[in-house]
Write the structure tokens for this entry.
Amino acid sequence: MSSDLSPLDAAQIAAFKEQGYLAIDSIATPDEVERMRDAYDRLFDAQIGREKGDHFDLAGVDEEDRPAKLQQMLGPSLYAPEFNSFECRETALAAARQILGKSAEPQGEHAIMKPAGFGAATPWHQDESYWDPKLEYHSLSVWVPLQEATLENGCMQFIPGSHQLGVLPHRPINNDRRIHGLEVETQVETARAVACPIPAGGATFHFSRTLHYAGENLTDKPRRAYIMVFGLPRKPFPGERSFSWLKDRETAREKRAASAKSVVLKTGLIP
Ligand code: NI
């Protein structure tokens, strides 16, 4: 992918660097959103990738006979190659290069679907808390809703300036090691949270350390989000660090991935 696109203006870039988040009204055309939604629903309806651990419940214990409250899919383009041809991928990469520099590269993509009526909240977290602590990250995520994102269906919310913090202590949701999702342990100043409702095909951007949250889906339609991660080439983290919350996990996802010897498990980022 190469591009001379400049999707962001100087004021947006400056605001993002200062606040750690940004919302824009359009990164994909309505026609593209429709095509993305078709591919997206096909993947989630069939729970593609489940046996490899690439489809799972982010907020529950992920048992086979219970409806997942917060469905996540890693690497949708591996299962639906048309994701590779969507123009918003190139636009998002160009925006990431405006922010991080020309050597920024795609570092993964995933999808989070909150089912109609009972989709769970995504608790406050920093994405970097999920990642290998031995590496150093200069990364950001671009979050694209495939329908309007509202407070009622779980739009993104951010704590301004939180990207300046280090990686805060996290724990598995409910302190249950069987649950994949992480939540920050320290108190979050939720009174400072900024909710970012945006149209279908809009986007929010956040750095890997920006504290973020998305509420439950209280509507009668699924809340679909497609998320792309971009970053500078990763280097060893200078010094020692370990994330205690990543040790001794016992998730059904990891078990399925291990028995399928999933490549994504080893190489993919799992925000
Ligand atoms: Ni996240």
About this structure: The helical segments are 10-19, 30-45, 76-79, 87-100, 252-260, 263-267. DSSP finds six helices and 15 strands in the chain. The domain at 10-267 is CATH 2.60.120.620 (Jelly Rolls).
